[in-house]
Design goal:
This protein is 74% helix and 0% strand. The chain is mainly α and 117 residues long. Among the domains are: 36 residues; 32 residues. The termini are far apart.
């Protein structure tokens, strides 16, 4: 009796495995779940969420992208470009020129030092 009971349990589990792993077993269940989700969305979610939520996500993604670029390239402050200077003011000299001149002098000294050695 125990052998036939064991065989019937194994056969029952085999049939269950075959049906549960079949696509056709899950098709009506997934369809019913989709219908219920659609009904829930129609009743509980406002239609403008479909317009507002993506816009908010896009704005948030743009802000994150700006932060990532600033961190990657080491941008610390904002620089505003002016089309013209106020009346009676001269244009400010470019601050990068001093750095470039220092680097050029350093390269000359390094080159002269390597030639003398």
């Amino acid at each position: 009796m125990s052998a036939s009971l064991k065989e019937s349990i194994v056969e029952l589990f085999t049939v269950m495995k075959a049906s549960v792993t079949s696509f056709w077993f899950w098709l009506p269940i997934l369809y019913a779940a989709g219908v219920f989700i659609d009904l829930w969305l129609m009743i509980n979610v406002h239609p403008l969420i479909g317009v507002i939520l993506p816009a908010v996500l896009i704005i948030y993604a743009i802000c994150l992208e700006e932060k990532r670029v600033k961190l990657r390239y080491g941008i610390k402050d904002k620089k505003y470009l002016k089309a013209f200077h106020a009346f009676g003011q001269f244009p400010e000299p470019d601050r990068r020129l001093g750095l470039i001149e220092e680097l050029a002098e350093y390269a000359k000294r390094k080159k002269e030092k390597s030639k003398s050695e």
